[in-house]
Amino acid sequence: MNDYLIFMHDDTETPVDVATPAWEDYFAMLRASGRFCGGSSIGPGICVHRSGQAKPVTPHLSGYIRVQAESIDDAKKLLIGNPVLNAGGTVEIRELPRD
Questions:
Q1: pLDDT tens, residue by residue, 53-81
Q2: What is the DSSP string of 33-66?
Q3: Residue 30's closest CA among 73, 92, 82, 72?
Q4: Helix/strand/coil for 88
Q5: How far is residue 74 from each of residues 17, 38, 58, 67, 69, measured CA to CA in Å?
Q6: What is the pTM of this model?
Q7: How is the beta sheet containing 91-96 ordered, strand by strand?
Q8: What whole-number distance in Å separates Cα of residue 87 and Cα of residue 99?
Q9: Half-sphere exposure (CA, 13 Å, Cβ side) for 17?
Q10: What are the beta bridge partners of residue 3?
Q11: Are 14 and 83 in contact (CB under 8 A)?
């Protein structure tokens, strides 16, 4: 199994509140799959660079979920029922390589 991060973007037409039955159902499905490894909303922050000239934070990320899957296509299957995707928003899947 590989580890993946699923990033939710904040580009839905209407805000997606995390305290909804849709999220509860989605997380219940992920937990039942046995492949859910955690996640969280993402709040404000800063970027830091040694030179003091850091770029701004990536503003469109609103949350993440960590999952285990055989492949990126397998991780994509775990998006069924994702409230951000269902609301027309963007969801990004990134592999966490074992370096």
A1: 889 888 889 999 999 999 999 999 999 99
A2: HT-EEEEEE--------TTS-PPPP-TTEEEEEE
A3: 82
A4: coil
A5: 26, 17, 27, 10, 6
A6: 0.88
A7: 36-41, 61-69, 2-9, 91-96
A8: 35
A9: 3
A10: 68, 96
A11: no
